């Protein structure tokens, strides 16, 4: 592949990224995925691919193609930052870019730790974009919406909320996403297979989705969303403990004795 061809590919990707992200509610998940991949490839997705490779490299203990895992992950991290810069220049503020910011923040925390000067600007931008997209205040009317985009948004926001509380705990800082300002419900505990196979013609029936009235799956299995929901509840409790620990005002001992999490 010569330089001219690479330039043409890059220009095509830039052109695709300038297009409004397809955030409409697609009836078929594969149509939604095809709208930003293949010939519609965007910089957000390229950055996400490198984030997966970076996380995979960090799990290796042996050299990869002559590179030490951490060195390779740092190279991938640099490419992720470049993809973020491209998206920022184009003002591509969408859920896919938000996911890229979140994944880059995760890789940064593993490589450098949550106290690194580079971590908090990334995390702050992630939180800021999530709030500007109103993901922190999603309508309760959409809680049972099983469409892939809506559930993906709920899953992503819950993951960002968890990271926010974890980073605050490890660094001793106040969370950037206080629960008082977040009303978005947890995502449904749906198996990915069900989520991908669901069609609008089926209607919204919690029983057919395999979840109870509280959103938990009823088949006794542990899915990725099962642990995500549980960690979301734990993060809420952690925030309440942080509030007590970081509040410098004098507190009556009874405040601590009477403290009991909602969950």
TrEMBL record:
One of the record's GO molecular function terms: zinc ion binding
InterPro entries reported for this sequence: Sec_Metabolite_Reg (IPR050613), XnlR_reg_dom (IPR007219)
Transmembrane portions of the chain: none
Domain of life, source organism: Eukaryota
UniProt domain Xylanolytic transcriptional activator regulatory: residue ranges: 119-193
Single GO BP term: DNA-templated transcription
Pfam families: Fungal_trans
GO CC list: nucleus
Annotated localization: Nucleus
Oxidoreductase recorded as keyword: no
Keyword annotations from UniProtKB, A to Z: Nucleus
PANTHER family referenced in this protein's UniProt entry, alphabetically: UNCHARACTERIZED TRANSCRIPTIONAL REGULATORY PROTEIN, ZN(II)2CYS6 TRANSCRIPTION FACTOR (EUROFUNG)
The protein's name: Fungal specific transcription factor domain-containing protein
Species annotation: Trichoderma breve
């Amino acid at each position: 592949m010569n330089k001219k061809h690479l330039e043409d590919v890059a220009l095509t990707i830039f052109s695709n990224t300038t297009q409004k992200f397809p955030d409409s509610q697609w009836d078929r998940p594969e149509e939604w995925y095809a709208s930003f991949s293949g010939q519609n490839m965007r910089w957000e997705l390229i950055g996400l691919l490198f984030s997966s490779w970076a996380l995979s490299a960090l799990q290796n203990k042996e050299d990869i193609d002559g590179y030490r895992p951490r060195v390779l992950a740092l190279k991938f991290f640099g490419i992720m930052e470049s993809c973020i810069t491209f998206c920022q220049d184009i003002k591509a503020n969408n859920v896919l870019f938000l996911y890229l910011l979140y994944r880059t923040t995760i890789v940064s925390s593993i490589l450098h730790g949550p106290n690194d000067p580079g971590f908090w600007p990334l995390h702050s931008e992630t939180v800021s974009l999530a709030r500007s997209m109103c993901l922190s205040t999603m309508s309760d009317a959409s809680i049972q919406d099983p469409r892939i985009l809506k559930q993906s948004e709920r899953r992503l926001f819950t993951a960002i909320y968890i990271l926010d509380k974890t980073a605050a705990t490890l660094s001793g800082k106040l969370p950037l996403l206080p629960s008082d300002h977040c009303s978005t419900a947890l995502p449904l505990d749906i198996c990915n297979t069900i989520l991908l196979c669901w069609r609008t013609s089926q209607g919204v029936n919690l029983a057919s989705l395999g979840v109870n009235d509280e959103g938990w799956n009823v088949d006794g299995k542990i899915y990725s969303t099962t642990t995500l929901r549980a960690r979301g509840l734990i993060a809420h409790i952690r925030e309440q403990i942080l509030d007590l620990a970081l509040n410098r005002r004098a507190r009556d001992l009874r405040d601590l004795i009477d403290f009991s999490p909602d969950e």
